[in-house]
Sequence to fold (181 residues):
Amino acid sequence: MAPNNEKISTLISKEELQKRIKELAKDIGKDYEGRDLLIIAVLKGSFMFLADLIRELDCHVGIDFMGTSSYGASTKSSGEVRITKDLEQSVWGRHVLLVEDIVDTGLTLRYLVDTLRARQPASLKVCALLDKPARRRVRIGLDYYGFIIPNAFVVGYGLDYQEKYRGLPYVGVMEDEDQHS
Ligand code: PRP
Ligand code: 7HP
Fold:
């Protein structure tokens, strides 16, 4: 139950999330076998996905975080990506996997990929739990994705609306949300 008045309908259940994350971890584990992997998770939204993903990964990984913000209290991207937290370690010469909760316009990911590439990792791949292609404003490729979702503003499992709903164990859509067109 959402701890507020807005009605949230389930888009992706807890069970579906966990099943797909297991599959993603298997693919990632296979691809990085024998290599040291540095996972960079994008705060805040990806914290829950990261926690579940690394628990399923059958290899040693380093973890670091970057924080970005472009939505503020709105359901629409401001179009301007702001770094709120930078990495604590160098990515130079490392195999890096960038972990995102959602790719919507693609502006956040484009900015992060360009920023990280300039720091010369040995390799850079991207894993996003949710892909919302209908809203894309820039071209960006995903190496791993969990689910393709429709053009709706989603919450839960790390994702927020005005900082609410991050703790829901499923991904849902706010039923009276009509501003996301
Ligand atoms: C959200 C989400 C992604 C980004 C995707 O972050 O977590 O990082 O937006 O949107 P885009 O593809 O349109 O750029 P947000 O800026 O809301 O920060 P938060 O994760 O701290 O809530
Ligand atoms: C960012 C974001 N945050 C929550 N729900 C969505 O659908 C979103 N798209 N981009």
Remarks:
- The helical segments are 14-31, 47-56, 107-117.
- The longest strand covers residues 61-69.
- The pocket of PRP (ligand 1) is lined by residues 42-45, 68-71, 77, 100-109, 160 (CB under 6 Å).
